[in-house]
Amino acid sequence: MSENGSLRRGRPGYDQQGILEVAVAAFNQYGYDATSMGVLADRLGLSKSAIYHHFASKDEILERALDDALGALEGVLSEADAAGGRAADRVDHVLRGAVRVLVAKLSSVTLLLRVRGNTEVERRALARRRAFDKAVTALVEEAQAEGTLRSDIDASVVARLTFGMINSIVEWYRPGGREDADKLADDVIAVALDGLRMPTSNRVDELLG
Amino acid sequence: MSENGSLRRGRPGYDQQGILEVAVAAFNQYGYDATSMGVLADRLGLSKSAIYHHFASKDEILERALDDALGALEGVLSEADAAGGRAADRVDHVLRGAVRVLVAKLSSVTLLLRVRGNTEVERRALARRRAFDKAVTALVEEAQAEGTLRSDIDASVVARLTFGMINSIVEWYRPGGREDADKLADDVIAVALDGLRMPTSNRVDELLG
């Protein structure tokens, strides 16, 4: 919950951000369709009208949560573009950044990954996800063309497999566990970019001929 | 549907396997809870009693479908164990085998991955999934100990990330697409074991010192 008193318009205890967090947790637990404004009001200990003071509709709560996750992921792409340099380094930046966003915004990213396009808000979110995937695929193609990433795998398959690995983290990651976001990002980079096989096992033999 | 006439006990057109396939597709589309025996009967163009001729309950259909997926995955592990040799090669065998099972049994694996433990049948399936994950983690640990897989990543994180990547394939893979199971298995092995980065980009520099 925000410490900023000026954001508090409802009852003490829940500002807009606080309501959003409880709502996203409920959507993830029961499903968006199964979570009515009445259920949310019960969970918050607020009246429905107190929630409507902050959000025009349940759809608006969903939109805000999805925008939170998508905006952060799109920010990672923009940072990578702004940093310039080799495409392989920008791929590294995007993968690490995506892991950090996932850990920092675990609930809203979880919600985003479950969106199936049942409403207009969901369809807009899916369109932004597709644009993100397309940008990642283009970045991988660039790295393949510059010769820094292997080109024997289709770039869109590379994007899908690496983001499949990253997105699967929501299934098991719990804050406060053994791995923090940076270690987890290192692990993902280690697997995706350098691979698990020890170079000494047969890679060096091949490389040294 | 099976060609074997002796399996056909219901109306012409659907043997037990045929009913199972239609049921699994419906469970994946609408959710297990939302798919009643009445809905299934409508979809099959059969009476409910014709379905009960083959399956004692909806739960039994689910159990058969989950057993189909789990049995195939467990078979991959047994084959790897039976083959012996270096643990890294057995990891390779398990990852490739899991991709092939996923492609061959896309619907039942998709169903398995959505199981949340709401019923006794689901809880038994989750217990088998956990045992499978544990066996994969043990295999990775063995490969780390023999020095063939890198040991700077926790073995259980390795198992989660690689199977996260493999399992994500159900989200986008469609039979008859550009990639067949063998190419997809090659791609997964290429990413997970050897990594995307071209050795010439900076790996060889490091290796050759």
Automatic annotation (TrEMBL), chains A, B:
Sorted UniProt keywords: DNA-binding, Transcription, Transcription regulation
Pfam families, sorted: TetR_C_24, TetR_N
InterPro entries assigned to the protein according to its UniProt record, in alphabetical order: Homeodomain-like_sf, HTH-type_TetR-like_transc_reg, HTH_TetR, KstR2_TetR_C, Tet_transcr_reg_TetR-rel_C_sf
The keyword Transcription regulation belongs to this UniProt entry's keyword annotation: yes
PROSITE patterns: HTH_TETR_2 (PS50977)
An MF annotation (GO) of this entry: transcription cis-regulatory region binding
Top-level taxon of the source organism: Bacteria
Cross-referenced SUPFAM superfamilies: Homeodomain-like, Tetracyclin repressor-like, C-terminal domain
Name of the protein this chain belongs to: TetR family transcriptional regulator
Biological classification of the source: Bacteria, Bacillati, Actinomycetota, Actinomycetes, Micrococcales
